[in-house]
Amino acid sequence: MAGQEVSNKQVVLKDYVVGFPKESDMEFKTSKINLKLSEDSNGILLKNLYLSCDPYMRSRMTKHDRPTYVESFPIMGYGVSKVLDSRHPDYKAGDLVWGITGWEEYSLISSPQLFFKIEHTDVPLSYYTGILGMPGMTAYAGFYEVGSPKKGDRVFVSSASGAVGQLVGQLAKLNGCYVVGSAGSKEKVDLLKNKFGFDEAFNYKEEKDLDAALRRYFPEGIDIYFENVGGKMLEAVLSNMRLHGRIPTCGMISQYNLEQPEGVHNLFEIVAKRIRMEGFIVFDYYHLYPKYLEMILPHIREGKVSYVEDVAEGLESAPAALIGIYSGRNVGKQLVVVSRD
Amino acid sequence: MAGQEVSNKQVVLKDYVVGFPKESDMEFKTSKINLKLSEDSNGILLKNLYLSCDPYMRSRMTKHDRPTYVESFPIMGYGVSKVLDSRHPDYKAGDLVWGITGWEEYSLISSPQLFFKIEHTDVPLSYYTGILGMPGMTAYAGFYEVGSPKKGDRVFVSSASGAVGQLVGQLAKLNGCYVVGSAGSKEKVDLLKNKFGFDEAFNYKEEKDLDAALRRYFPEGIDIYFENVGGKMLEAVLSNMRLHGRIPTCGMISQYNLEQPEGVHNLFEIVAKRIRMEGFIVFDYYHLYPKYLEMILPHIREGKVSYVEDVAEGLESAPAALIGIYSGRNVGKQLVVVSRD
């Protein structure tokens, strides 16, 4: 019953990381893997096609003295994969799936129930690392379930051209909101205004006074801040929130590589303006995935929602691609193609 | 139709305050007031009996460049008063009321619809500055409506012997929660444990490491933090919250007198633990007041809920009483008796 044994290139974290991660924090290893599962397995064997680079991945590179929401080692992340062999009743060879896999050519998954089967392939398969995968669900759950949007709400999105932000802005427009985004380059700002239909956008790196920038775009204040960055931007936003404003708190990428995170000094605004600031994690909302697909797929097919990807070719390019997202080098959703089929 | 003109002693703020307020920031003035309303009035004329000293009052002593939730000048605050004359159909001479009045012997109120009529006088009248007034409703709304408590929840209350905190702890115990409070003296800690029935209590001034103190009392973490103080305590609490914890954010008294508020550096905990931090103001919940009275009055009458007051005698003592709450000099709810009838 022995199957074919092949070499399996992998990306491995060499050691825990302090500060900004570097390419040299990762290294390539090659092991062997048998493409046929043993008879006592209950798992699936995957060929990885697309790997997703997501900000949250920084967290599990840090040595924690307490448990956090991500704990794994070596590098694991969301990806789109093809099932080569299955001993699990829900999957068969040839199925396409997305879920948390390894940064390697082939992965043996012992808990395949955490994977989603891909049913719709008339849209780009890579979208299942982005708008049709975890980041898409994050935007949807954060905006609708945590943000409680109403028509006419004034919405601000930071990190707005990223995997999540570009969709939040478009959902907000579909919902009849006024939307402003911030990003870190002219090219990204142009995308926000011309491709994603944000009402306004600005380059936060060119604003000496974020508070003044927000006052310019939100003279009457912000109803919903979709929080991706934390730190000084959060502080400026708090000063510009409206009464009963909501802050779905998705991430704080500006803080992940700092040894001492920045302090936020004006949290009293939360009392004065009755603000609800609520952290959320997409895991808690995956039961809504079918409902989300039903809503978003027609918009994608009809071109009413756009999605911009930044595609790195080959597993060899994965470390640089991952590191790039912490300095904003990517334009749009960063992903890595391991293989196109 | 001219009525009796009498002298009216008042407490006035001399100028905006920076840093900790001092007695010398206030002064006494005496004016004249006619105890009979003019015929074209739609207001009520009050004799003030009890005045309430509340932390939020610090805010309107500061000169703001933007509107905040409290704006008035000279000193105004919650109080219990007797109607001496009324030109408003809802009130008549002899009624007892509570609401926002002036720090003076007699007040002319032009918008009396904001006052609550006192119907139950078998309990101490001064309670309407505390457990039966704004602080009581604050505890009730914050704990039940914002905190979403469940039986068995682990609850932490800061400023726990104060006007709001002492009641939050008792409501939490009635609700089957485990409750720990912090306060600033041994006397207060004893009250929390022996009078209010908290499971545990500690003196935050004697804890060098607040994080370690909280870990000691909450080895499995905190479900609900009723936030009254902000700053370093909030930072320590965030590190000790449990998944899906809630932080009803009532006030941040530790920050009110700082020229530069402290920074909170670990807001990422809000994401990692899916915490909901929500500011609230009692105004938004006054429609629940009848329901609250119906619940709390029997508990008070049966002695199942206690309430400790710190009573200053005479309007002359009001400035010192107000200033004392910012250094924690009061033990229990601070109020001032202007007149007992």
Task: Kindly describe this structure.
The structure is a homodimer of 341-residue chains. Chain A is of the alpha/beta class. Chain A folds into two domains: 5-130 and 308-337, Quinone Oxidoreductase, Chain A, domain 1 (Alpha-Beta Complex), CATH 3.90.180.10; 134-283, NAD(P)-binding Rossmann-like Domain (Rossmann fold), CATH 3.40.50. The first copy, chain A, has eight helices and 15 strands. Chain A has helices at residues 134-146, 165-174, 186-195, 210-217, 231-240, 268-272, 289-301, 318-324, and strands at 5-13, 26-34, 44-52, 76-86, 96-102, 106-109, 116-117, 154-157, 178-183, 200-203, 222-226, 241-249, 276-279, 309-313, 333-337. The two termini of chain A are 26 Å apart. The interface between A and B is medium-sized, with 33 and 33 residues.
Short description:
Helix content of chain A is 22%, strand content 27%. The first copy, chain A, is α/β, with parallel strands linked by helices and 341 residues long.
Classified in CATH, the superfamily of the largest domain in chain A is: Medium-chain alcohol dehydrogenases, catalytic domain
Give the oligomeric state of the chains in this entry, treating copies of one chain as homo and distinct chains as hetero: homodimer
Number of strand elements of chain A? 15
**Domain tally of chain A:** 2
Pfam families (chains A, B): ADH_N_2, ADH_zinc_N
Organism (chains A, B): Chenopodium quinoa (Quinoa)
Protein name (chains A, B): Enoyl reductase (ER) domain-containing protein
Keywords (chains A, B): Oxidoreductase
